Amino acid sequence: MIAYIDSSLFLKLLFDEQGTSQAQMLWDSDPVLISSRLLRIEARATLARRKLDRRITSQESKIVAQTFDDLWARLTVVEISEQVAESACEIAESTRLRSLDAIHLASAMAVSADLFGSSDVRLCNAASELGFAVFNPEAN
Question: Taking 70 as the threshold, does the pLDDT of residue 109 lie above it?
């Protein structure tokens, strides 16, 4: 099974929050895990923001950063190619998705993912409309 993982699901593997155990179950089920290069930017920005906002300590930040690197190494990365960008434009024009969400969905389409994983309800709905099986760790 090819499982596309967006940033909202991936972050649940880094921070204990609603849906973390379900996200971990998907991760541990040993699918082929895929995401966009965009995930790296979004996850690192979230980690930095939580540290700057003092929601995590410097020591916690180092631990999470190491966990991030370990998890990232397991992903197959989809680059934001011209094809992915054009597909994202079409998705954004035909849905109410924000641009970065459209990139995630276009990336999943580019690799013909079997499953689209996200905790973003709007993004899950759009993925379902495009024919993906959807996994929302907050709903499962």
Answer: yes
pLDDT recorded at residue 140: 64
Letter for the amino acid at 105?
A: L
Bridge partners, 35 (sequence order): 77
DSSP H or E stretch at residue 4: strand 2-5
The predicted structure's pLDDT at residue 70: 97
- Is 111 within 8 Å of 104 (Cβ atoms)? no
Sign, CA dihedral 86-131-37-122, equals positive
Domains and CATH numbers, the chain: 2-135 (3.40.50.1010)
Whole-model pTM?
A: 0.94
Rg value, the chain, Cα? 15
Quote the CA–CA distance of 105 and 44 in Å, as a whole number: 20
